[in-house]
Amino acid sequence: MSLDSHIESVLWTPDQIAARVSELAAQISADHSPLSEPLVLVGVATGAFLFLADLARSLRLPVTVDFIRAESYGSGTVSNGSPRISSDLKLDVSGRHVVLVEDIVDSGSTIACLIAHLEAKGASSVSVCTFLDKPSRRKVHFKLLSKGKFYRGFECPDYFVVGYGMDFAELYRNLPYVGVLKPEHYK
Ligand code: 5GP
């Protein structure tokens, strides 16, 4: 079964994604070197898994990798309110420089919750690297911790998108591009 026929339009192709990920990695490497300790990449599960894998391989820095899970989405396309952390880090981030790696920042409430959580765990700085950003939908204006920076791959129009890690009802994550799902497949 191919899921390509469920896609209305492709917003970013694999080549465009790869080129942008390399640029982001170069920027993060330049901004964080030299570091006395490895940079901590915290992937937000599950949507960031492909982005994190590609980004980590392009970074020219020593890194450690962990994942965190925050839930506020059911199987629909609209957030059901304030997120909660359902699976926490294994690594100790106290005194460490952290980059939160996200698939998409939408209302901002997930990332705000995660920044506060990492701050409470004593991280020295928290940056955010999101593959996509939907600034037109922002409701929560999060503040980055210490000298943390905000990196984003692409500004995303206000569509529900899937692929490159992002799902609808746990499907479509392995599409190598980002596309807009046909409404008949999520209604
Ligand atoms: P926020 O807390 O910023 O409203 O939502 C962030 C989370 O919502 C993302 O990590 C992602 O899981 C989900 N999300 C927001 N917009 C989209 C979208 O267009 N497609 C998919 N698949 N997930 C989305």
UniProtKB/TrEMBL annotation:
Residues 16-168 form the Phosphoribosyltransferase domain. Keywords: Cytoplasm, Glycosyltransferase, Magnesium, Metal-binding, Nucleotide-binding, Purine salvage, Transferase. It is found in: Cytoplasm. Pathway: Purine metabolism; IMP biosynthesis via salvage pathway; IMP from hypoxanthine: step 1/1. Pfam families: Pribosyltran. One of its GO terms (molecular function) is glycosyltransferase activity. Its EC number is 2.4.2.8. Its cofactor is Mg(2+). It catalyses: IMP + diphosphate = hypoxanthine + 5-phospho-alpha-D-ribose 1-diphosphate. Its main location: cytoplasm. InterPro entries: HGPRT, Hxn_phspho_trans, PRTase-like, PRTase_dom. The keyword Lipid biosynthesis does not apply. Belongs to the purine/pyrimidine phosphoribosyltransferase family. This is Hypoxanthine phosphoribosyltransferase. It comes from Prunus mume (Japanese apricot).
